[in-house]
Amino acid sequence: MEPVLEVRHLTVQFHTPSGTVQAVRDVSFSLHKGEVLAIVGESGCGKSVLCRSILKLLPDTARLPSGTILVNGVDITGYGEREMTKLRGKLFSMVFQDPMTALDPTMTIGAQIAEAVRVHQPRMGRDALRQRVLELMTLVGIERPAERMGLYPHNFSGGMRQRSVLAMALAGDPAILFADEPTTALDVTIQAQILDLLRQIQRQLGTATVFVTHDLGAVARVADRVAVMYAGKIVEIGTAEEVFYDPRHPYTWGLLQSLPVLSRGRETLPTIPGMPPDLLHPPKGDTFACRNPYALAIDYEEEPPLFPITETHFAATWLLDPRTPQVTPPVGGGLHG
Q1: Which of 49, 71, 163, 227 sits CB 3.0–4.6 Å from 237 for a disulfide?
Q2: Is residue 158 within 8 Å of residue 185, measured between CB atoms?
Q3: pLDDT digit string (tens) for 16-72?
């Protein structure tokens, strides 16, 4: 089955007074209908930039010097603002991290959802429009929608605002939904509700979803496949089971070790030493080498390719080279020399 989205060797750079920031470096992945792909990594690793580059929501300082973006087999890499405006909301849509910055405080929730519907169906009658708004509010779990469509954003809790933003994002029946850390500003209970809602909508509508987060616990709840990003590159990608139960990249080991569920009985959580590299001047070789306790001499000289582990599981680490001695990871699974 042909993927609904395919990104090939995409590079995104930002030109600044200090130099060129290499925010996304040679990233490739695919996304199929009805699939949830989680993109995981520390803040600043390029997760959000990657998603915004696909929707062409980058500032004027951004450049895409190489790479291809295919949607349903059509190359949209060179599309301008006019062509992208026709695709946003209808072909793909995005839910942002903070709902308050996505909502207009002077308009009712119902009016804002209606506005999103009218963008895609400008000739829809008033009664049909009202019915569509009620359908969308019900779909995202807003109870008593007829009463609440007349309320303003400040009348809603954080979770209800995020549900409202999700309703707006679904107004055009998009084939692909980008969710950029949609649960970060919410408490744990509401986070779980929103994650379950995203999964429910994906199953009900068959929407392909790219879920951006730094929370591995959230990933385990919703993802079919997981891509781990570090310093602008995907360093490991595979099914959720493969990445959680048979991780192969030292960075993935570090992320998993930091999960509280794996640190019961310890006084402190393990941390990854050091800091991410400066992407103005990425270091030679593997950018994770200086933080990697298993680093080899070659890590400081050559960047590792994505080594295949299975047909669906790949990791960019020289530890997977057949010439490298076997290493026992600190969390689940093992490396085969």
Answers
A1: 227
A2: yes
A3: 999 999 999 999 999 999 999 999 999 899 999 999 999 999 999 999 999 999 999
Q: E strands of 72-123, at which residues?
A: 74-75, 92-95
Three-state DSSP at 25 gives strand
pLDDT > 90: what percent of the chain?
77
Reading the block at residue 251, the tokens are 């960075």
Per-residue 3-state assignment (H helix, E strand, C coil) for the chain? CCCCEEEEEEEEEEEECCEEEEEEEEEEEEECCCCEEEEECCCCCCHHHHHHHHHCCCCCCEEEEEEEEEECCEECCCCCHHHHHHHECCCEEEECCCHHHHCCCCCCHHHHHHHHHHHHCCCCCHHHHHHHHHHHHHHCCCCCHHHHCCCCHHHCCHHHHHHHHHHHHCCCCCCEEEEECCCCCCCHHHHHHHHHHHHHHHHHHCCEEEEEECCHHHHHHHCCEEEEEECCEEEEEEEHHHHHHCCCCHHHHHHHHCCHHHCCCCCCCCCCCCCCCCCCCCCCCCCCHHHCCCCCHHHHCCCCCCEECCCCCEECCHHHCCCCCCCCCCCCCCCCC
Q: Give mean pLDDT, residues 234-263.
A: 91
pLDDT digits (tens, 9 = 90+) for 6-30: 999 999 999 999 999 999 999 999 9
